[in-house]
Specification:
Blueprint (H helix, E strand, L loop, with lengths): L11 E3 L5 E3 L5 H8 L3 H11 L10 H4 L30 H9 L3 H14 L5 H4 L4 H19 L15 H10 L6 H10 L2 H4 L8 H21 L9 H35 L3
Antiparallel strand pairs: 1-2
Helix pairs in contact: 2-5, 4-5, 4-7, 5-8, 7-8, 11-12
Length: 274
Amino acid sequence: MSFSTANVTPAIVFTTDNDLTPDPFNLNRFVKAQDENGTFARVLATIREGRRKPQPATWIWFVFPQMNKCLTRDRRPGRRHKDVWPRGQALTSLDEARAFLRHPILGPRIREAAQALLDSPFSDKFSVMDNMLYDVERLHSSMTIFRQAARYPSCIHQTRHHLRENYVFRRVLDRYFVDFLNSEDEDELLDQNNAELMKQYRGKRHIPTMYRLDAIELEAIELRMAKGEGCVCRRSKEELELLDKGSKRKIMTYRQFREERKIRATAVLDSLPI
């Protein structure tokens, strides 16, 4: 299956006020790709019904969009670290993901796609993605991005509790990407195919994606602190400085926690009998 990836002129979208508004992120590329040959609807039908998805899985870049530098590239021998998305088609930032959620067509569709995952008869991430390891990673990354975009709808300074329609991203993480200290516990639960038991565990975000989002935010923080630039939330310079210091401290604490947890997990594996 092939999809058109030709460059198009900047898209124009209609707002609720019926005004013509430029699309700065060219989100129309996603609409065109989803609509071609009815691919979006067909993919969602296969997910809901537990059938094999269209191959090759080039549809995943526009059904579950991702970003570059999130370690979701195909690293199999001979594939030359190939991305699944055409050049220039990945999400560029969390701001673009926020715009995606606000889009009158794409916003409802990404929520519908996430809900389709919850409607799947499968309870494990590998079965729902046809046992394609890298597609599992891409799905995890995509749900992490939109979970963050929904959590921080305008900027990092404004946190919003999940609205009903946005909670679906967190539910996907909780269902398919449970946070285990080691893989043996996860494998045991997956073997049981016990969805009710899995509900007792919280889902985790895709760590490489969180590192990428944090790196982008740290760059923005450093820029604001160095140049005194404002933010879309229109807070005062003094308040922004205080909040940015807190955000930076939180990001660094999270990184330290992940490193310490990695060390503990390695120690557990080393202690197991061979």
